[in-house]
Structure formats: C-alpha cells, structure tokens
Amino acid sequence: MIVSTRPLRRRLTTLLAVAGAVIAAGATVFATGTHSASAAACNGYVGLTYDDGPTGSTSQLLNALRSNGVRATMFNVGQNVAGNPGMTQQQVSAGMWVANHSYTHAHLTQQSQSQMQSELSRTQDAIRNATGQTPRLFRPPYGETNGTLRGVESSLGLTEVLWDVDSQDWNGASTAAIVQAAGRLQNGQVILMHDGIQNTINAIPQIMQNLTSRNLCPGMISPQTGRAVAPDGGTQPTGGPTSPQPTNGGGGSCTATIVPGTVWGDRYNTTVNVSGSSAWIVTVTLTSPQQISTTWNANFTWSASNVATVRPNGSGNSFGFTTMMNGNSGARPSVSCRTS
Ligand SMILES: [Zn+2]
C-alpha cells in the first residue's frame, strides 16, 4: 500500500540475476508435498494477500509460499506487471491468484472517472497479456475508495477487496508482529501484506504454523463475496454454515453467503452477505430447537419456528441475527436466495 515509494525499479535490476537462480532451484523442490499443509482439517479459510508486486524479491516470496504449501492472492501494480510479465506468470505458475492494484499505485479517489478507468483497465490488460488470466479482484491503493471508483470496478467485472487485518508490514512491523497479526484472522477474513519486504517473507512458516494449529487454511478470495473460501472456490468450510444457492428469477439472480460471527456459551451471531440483485429474498433455516433472538439490517418474517424469510429494509445487502442454541450447540443455519 504505502510502500510504492520504495525504489522498486532499482531493486529490481539488482535482484533480477538472483531471481532466475532461485526459480530454477525452487521448481524441483515445489513438485511434491505442497498440499500436505492443507490436507489437515480446514474448519475455515483465510485470504493471505501480497500487494505491490511483482518486485525484485517476488521469486523469493513465491519460494517461501510454495515450500510452506501456501496459495495467496497477489494484488499487482500494473506498471510492475508490464515491466516484468515473466515474474507475473511465475506467480500463476506457483499457484497464486493474480489481482488488480491499479497501474501506478495512485490515490484514485483524487482522480477523474476516466483516469480511474485507465488505471484499472490498463492493469487488467497487463495482467491478461502476462498470464492469459483476467483478474476479478481489485484492491484500491491505500484502501481509498468511493462510489465513482466502485462504479468503474463494477464496469470491469472487478470485486473490491480491502482487508480485515493489517499486518503493518509496510510500516516496519517485525516478523513476530506480522505473525501475531495473522493470528487474529478468523474464518473468511483477509490480511494485508506486501511483496518486497523481508520480514513478511520470513513470517510465512510461523503464520502457517499458527493457522494450522487453529484448523484454518489459506484460501482464495471469492469474487462473489470478497471473502476467503476454499481454494477451488466452490467448497465452503467443513462444518461451516453456508449454502449459497444462486437462483434465476425475474429480478435477476442473487447469492446469499454466511459469515460466521461471535460464538458465546448459549448463542452465536451470523452475518449474511447478499450479492447480485438488490431485490432479494433470503430464506434462513435453523435446526430446532435453535431460535433467532435478535435481528438487524433486514425485515424477518416467520413461516415456521425455525424458518425465516428475510427481505431488505433499506440497510443494504448485509444483515445479521443472533441465534439461541437452546441446548444444540453444533448446528448452524443454512441460507438460500431468490429474487422478488
Ligand atoms: Zn499498495
């Protein structure tokens, strides 16, 4: 994010010679065992993200990620991609997801709509030329966004992704502090880190130890929800309370996705994010004897004691509720979405 001011170009030239050797050495190491870390039980997924690449140390970052069985999302700066398309392809070859972080790392909210359009579309082109893939995720530099920018993102089929946890690696955080920040990640959440920082690379083994100990696995960021999901994008966390069901209706289609919230001894919170049509109707089904005690940001009506029909109340496309367990602590709700 703020690290764009670092002299990347100079670092690039000095490190390029080293990079080739690292890739060549890494390629054989990577061939086996990269899935062992994620073969353990995944009770949830988190999104590890690295911004501002590719840089002169991208190959070192990829080496560390692959040798720890990690897949991550790389928010690339378009001009860096154009300057080193081969390294961008290396990101994809290493199993990473490539995403858009503007072309010049500009303060986009200070720009006109046409300038924003240029920043984003040129980056789409650069990444497509380098990898054959068209990004579907966009992170605005410095996290600065507004309605105009979101409109441009939407016109390019891009989903805006900010972060839940800031590692502060751009601000000189120690390796231990970066590991500690990752320790705060919960299911579905995303952490901000950066390409080109040694402490960040050094943190990877300990981050994975921490996540594994909590049965969390690195996942992809869903273009539908902007939340971390299983790497194949189609599987929700085991035991997770989600069942997104896109439905085609007269008002378009919608998808409802559950984000688990705080759990107490006798109750738990649930957030539901709806994407697609704004004319949505979400059905929430509980397992009896669980009952919803509190709701927010939508209108709930009840067709049975354990089945709620939820409609927008003008508070946007995200709502939530508290469920009393009533002795059943294991069950979680399911949701489906249709349009009115
Ligand atoms: Zn950045």
From TrEMBL:
Residues 1-31 form the signal peptide. Keywords: Hydrolase, Metal-binding, Signal. One of its GO terms (molecular function) is polysaccharide binding. This is Acetylxylan esterase. InterPro entries: CBD2, CBM2/CBM3_carb-bd_dom_sf, CBM2_carb-bd_dom_sf, Glyco_hydro/deAcase_b/a-brl, NODB_dom, Polysacc_deacetylase_ArnD, TAT_signal. One of its GO terms (biological process) is carbohydrate metabolic process. Residues 233-247 have a biased composition (Low complexity).
